[in-house]
Recover the amino acids of this structure.
């Protein structure tokens, strides 16, 4: 039976529900209808990601949502309420965007692979959340947009994650028009990996998660870290860096075991060392 943990920083029923089963931690945004990224929900997510960084029982993380909206971005009502303060909300705005930036970077730098399971609308910082995950699998009903330009607030921070997933022209198309794209277009742009019928979404995502969870967690951690690090380097530096990573990886016990198992035509037994 899956272990169930409720995270309750601010809401009685909790803005995030955590369930763990067979090495996979599922984090579900549980604040419908919008699942907006309030400070409370970002704190709950941050706490969960931080909690399992060194937890060997967690090998993969799935990020999902309840309701018809995956995530509507920042909680604009929460932010607007602070405009009445003497600084017109500046301190709260800075706190909100800093918390969001930290959360997104935590996902990218996290040692565990993170898969977004998207069913419904992912808009603004909600799209940023999807783009920050390592993989994203969506239902046919999923839609995506960066509509800030329509309300006088350009999606500058979501732009960081978006522009690291799709081409510049495609990113600017979304950012300048604010128009919503469907799942097929999102896949064409490179924002998501796969599109599946809604009734099979959970099954497909779990299959991806279990496939990754069956690998050496040391090797997966090494590869994820190297992927994002080399992406920020020039060509020569990237090859020099990944060469060092390969040497270190070759000296790991799991590489010795995996190569030995391949040569011996047997199933490897990982020690995650």
């Amino acid at each position: 039976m899956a272990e169930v943990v409720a995270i309750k920083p601010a809401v009685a029923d909790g803005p995030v529900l955590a369930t763990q089963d067979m090495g996979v931690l599922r984090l579900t945004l549980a604040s419908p209808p919008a699942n907006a990224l309030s400070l409370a929900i970002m704190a709950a997510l941050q706490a969960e990601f931080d909690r399992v960084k060194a937890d060997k029982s967690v090998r993969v993380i799935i990020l999902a949502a309840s309701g018809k909206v995956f995530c509507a971005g920042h909680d604009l009502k929460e932010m607007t309420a602070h405009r009445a303060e003497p600084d017109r909300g500046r301190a709260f705005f800075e706190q909100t965007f800093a918390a969001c930036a930290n959360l997104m970077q935590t996902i990218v730098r996290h040692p565990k692979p993170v898969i977004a399971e998207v069913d419904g609308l992912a808009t603004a910082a909600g799209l940023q959340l999807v783009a920050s995950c390592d993989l994203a699998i969506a239902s046919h009903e999923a839609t995506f947009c960066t509509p800030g330009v329509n309300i006088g607030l350009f999606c500058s921070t979501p732009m960081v994650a978006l522009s690291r997933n799709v081409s510049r022209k495609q990113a600017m198309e979304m950012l300048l028009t604010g128009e919503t794209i469907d799942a097929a277009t999102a896949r064409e742009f490179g924002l998501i990996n796969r599109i599946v019928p809604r009734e099979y979404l959970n099954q497909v995502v779990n299959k991806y998660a279990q496939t990754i969870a069956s690998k050496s967690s040391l090797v997966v951690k090494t590869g994820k870290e190297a992927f994002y690090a080399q992406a920020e380097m020039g060509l020569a530096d990237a090859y020099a860096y990944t060469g060092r990573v390969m040497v270190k990886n070759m000296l790991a016990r799991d590489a010795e075991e995996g190569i030995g198992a391949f040569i011996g035509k047997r199933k490897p037994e990982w020690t995650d060392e």
Notes: The radius of gyration is 20 Å.
